[in-house]
Write a structure and sequence with these properties.
This protein is α+β, with helices and mostly antiparallel strands. It contains ten helices and twelve strands.
């Protein structure tokens, strides 16, 4: 058995990330190193005794001399330390205090993953439309996800980097079309008035809208794939600063929203200035041209219309949390080589 395990390791079953990249044709050079600034401080190993990892897992990792995991998703969601604060234990990470712990992603690793992901999509036989968009400022996806912290972030569970799920992309495009095209109705005098309450009902009566997004009876024809970063994502901290926490949390309505209440800053993670590749796909036989009489753009195939509204939604509304205050807005980026 030992001989067999040794042979498997030699053949690459347990190959390191560097060896796997080499097999994909990516040579080790300066682009495989971290792309972080010179002032960046790599995180010190967290005392594993402060985590809530199982004791046998702690023993194995301690014996192996393992520090903080390289995978940022594991570090954020699994390698969580706890400390006593005001007579209770509170989860903490170095990332919540200063620049220590902010991940740096290797350029070639990101490029290899994104290229492999896009190659797999191209092999599906669909007509594809890919667009690269860059966040204008900060982007937050998954802020309210379940977490031991008060906030969270959507991270790829295998690769560890931030990405935008296809469901989120489809949801924002669908919502923006409903608001912009179906958010008005004609009153008794034929004048257009805003009516968002029944906007979705009007959208679901439009056959071209259903053709793109589907309904409860059938799936939409356009497929919205996960958006992966094409450049190493820059993860940074931000804060929310609610001033009236006691007022909002008072179930008996006895606490007024007064100025003497103490603000409690809540840190959360964001992605800054990162370019993502958005890919839409459709079967060639289903990429019909929208006819005259539709509220959607006439005379263009479904896939082209979906791409146009994707750009409009992300540039005019944004994606993720806190879009009302400018987060999540994106604009066109040049194609990566």
């Amino acid at each position: 058995m030992a001989k067999k395990n040794k042979q498997n390791k030699k053949e690459g079953t347990h190959a390191s990330p560097e060896e796997q990249l080499a097999k994909l044709g990516y040579k080790k050079d300066k682009t495989t190193e971290c792309v972080c600034p010179e002032s960046y401080k790599h995180p010190e190993p967290c005392d594993i005794r402060l985590t809530r990892l199982p004791h046998n897992t702690q023993e194995v990792l301690r014996d192996a001399g393992t520090g903080i995991p390289d995978n940022f998703s594991l570090r954020l969601n699994r390698w969580v330390g706890f400390k006593n604060e005001k007579e209770r234990e509170k989860p903490f990470l170095p990332i919540y205090s200063d620049k220590e712990g902010i991940p740096c992603f290797a350029l070639n690793c990101v490029k290899a993953i994104v290229d492999r992901h896009f190659a797999a999509i191209k092999d599906s036989g669909l007509i594809l439309n890919d667009t690269e968009l860059t966040s204008d400022w900060r982007l937050i996806v998954g802020l309210g996800n379940e977490s031991v912290f008060e906030t969270s972030m959507t991270l790829h569970h295998v690769y560890g980097f931030p990405y935008i799920p296809g469901s989120a992309v489809k949801g924002i495009v669908r919502s923006w079309i409903i608001t912009e095209l179906f958010g008005q109705k004609s009153d008794d005098k034929g004048v257009k008035v805003t009516d968002l309450k029944k906007a979705e009902e009007r959208a679901l009566d439009d056959k071209d809208f259903i053709a793109i997004f589907g309904n409860t009876e059938k799936a939409g024809k356009v497929i919205f794939f996960d958006a992966y970063p094409t450049s190493p994502p820059e993860v940074d901290t931000d804060i929310m600063n609610p001033h009236f926490g006691k007022y909002y949390g008072d179930q008996e309505d006895k606490t007024p929203p007064a100025d003497y209440l103490t603000p409690v800053p809540i840190p959360f993670l964001t992605v800054k200035g990162t370019t993502f590749r958005f890919v839409l796909g459709i079967r060639e036989s289903e990429n019909s041209v929208i006819p005259d009489g539709s509220l959607l753009e006439r005379g263009r195939p479904l896939l082209d219309v979906a791409e146009r509204w994707l750009k409009k939604a992300l540039s005019e509304h944004g994606i993720g949390a806190k879009t009302a205050v400018g987060y999540g807005l994106m604009s066109s980026a040049s194609k990566s080589s």
